[in-house]
Amino acid sequence: MLTKKQLQLLEFIHKRLQRDGVPPSFDEMKTELDLRSKSGIHRLITALEERGFIRRLPHRARAIEIIRLPESLGGTGEPQGFAPKVIEGGQARTTVPAPASADPLRQAAVELPVMGRIAAGVPIEAISQVSHQVAVPGGMIAPTGQHFALEVKGDSMIEAGINDGDIVVIRETSAADNGDIVVALVEGQEATLKRYYREGSMIALEAANPVYETRRYPEDMVEVQGRLVGLIRTY
């Protein structure tokens, strides 16, 4: 049995993994559950891990796998195959094999253009040149819409599990919801990867690293070019 807070946190992590491909930050978890400190989040995560609902991956900042879901969240209560959207060394890390037809990362790979580098730090000059192609599992690609990939430069998104040198998979869109990780074009010249928030007539581009301050711009200075849907990491 899970407590109300444990169930609430598991549901929040599950939804964010489905939406972004990366788990929420501890600050986002703390805000979502209306807790006063991150220590409460640590206790809840430990409890979920001990009960076999999640697994924390070593050597990666706050990387979390969901092993199973309770029936109240649409699961069977039994361990299930899980294929995270983060790929390391070209292979998905999967705890329990799932049937090929149900495993999105076993779908045919798709070649996407890598459109150069995107800043995860201070915005850099916008990228529009294709540098090379990268093979992406078909499960990362939505059935509709255009997709492209970018190499991350910088460390401002490390608390979202996005490191310098990672390849991010982006679905082209001009719309974004608060909290989405997006490729934003600033003043038509500088591209950056940040969390998006609308604050009235202003747009806030928020880093996932306390070293970097949140940057705010008038809405007509920021153009959303795409939303993060996957991440590829090699060593």
Topology:
Layout: H1 4-20, H2 26-32, H3 38-50, E1 54-56, E2 64-66, E3 86-88, E4 91-92, E5 110-119, E6 124-125, E7 132-136, E8 147-153, E9 167-172, E10 181-186, E11 190-199, E12 202-206, E13 215-218, E14 222-233
Parallel strand pairs: 3-14, 5-8
Antiparallel strand pairs: 1-2, 3-4, 5-7, 6-11, 8-9, 9-14, 10-11, 10-14, 11-12, 12-13
Helix pairs in contact: 1-3, 2-3
Structure, described:
- This protein is an alpha+beta fold and 235 residues long.
- It is built from three helices and 14 strands.
- Strands 3, 4, 5, 6, 7, 8, 9, 10, 11, 12, 13 and 14 form a twelve-stranded mixed β-sheet that branches. A two-stranded antiparallel ribbon has the order 1-2.
- The radius of gyration is 18 Å and the shape is globular.
- Mean pLDDT is 76; it is low at 77-106.
Q: Please report the distance between the alpha carbons of the first and last residues.
A: 39 Å
Shape: globular
How much of the polypeptide forms β-strand, as a percent range?
25-35%
What's the number of helices? Answer: 3
Assembly annotation? single chain
SSE-based structural type: alpha+beta
Give a count of the beta strands, DSSP E runs of length 2 or more.
14
- SSE order in H/E notation? HHHEEEEEEEEEEEEEE
Largest sheet: 12 strands, mixed
